[in-house]
Amino acid sequence: MVIFGWIIAGIAGLLFAFSAVCWGIHIAVDNSDWKRLGIKVFRIGLVFVLLYINVYVYAHIFGVMSGTQKPVAEVVSEE
């Protein structure tokens, strides 16, 4: 799971950086095509972030159901 996390975080980070570059070019040359590309790339980056969150949530749910992990309420009450 850690490798998956680093891969998804890296891809999302690169997409967000490319989106920022597109917005910078849009501001510099005032071309709406760069603005649309920046928005599309940003949305794809958000999809990767949501995928990352969903995979971790479902992994925790299945871990609790299989008995390999404790429920969050049980972990919090032990502290």
Question: How is the main sheet built?
Answer: none
SSE string, helices as H and strands as E: HHH
Number of helices: 3
Name the helicity range: over 70%
Unreliable runs, pLDDT <50, ≥5 residues?
none
What is the arithmetic mean of pLDDT? 84
> In angstroms, what is the radius of gyration?
19 Å
Gap from first CA to last CA: 25 Å
Per the principal axes of the C-alpha atoms, what is the gross shape? rod-shaped
Work out the oligomeric state of the chains in this entry: single chain
Tell me the fraction of residues in β-strands, as a range.
under 5%
- Beta strand count: 0
Estimated structural class:
mainly alpha
Describe the structure.
The model has no long low-confidence stretch (mean pLDDT 84). The chain is rod-shaped. By secondary structure, the protein is mainly α. Helix 1 packs antiparallel against helix 2. It is built from 3 helices and no strands.
List the helices and strands and how they pair.
Layout: H1 2-29, H2 32-66, H3 72-78
Helix pairs in contact: 1-2
Give the tags.
3 helices; rod-shaped; single chain; 79 residues
Q: How would you sum up this structure in a few lines?
A:
The chain is mainly alpha-helical and 79 residues long.
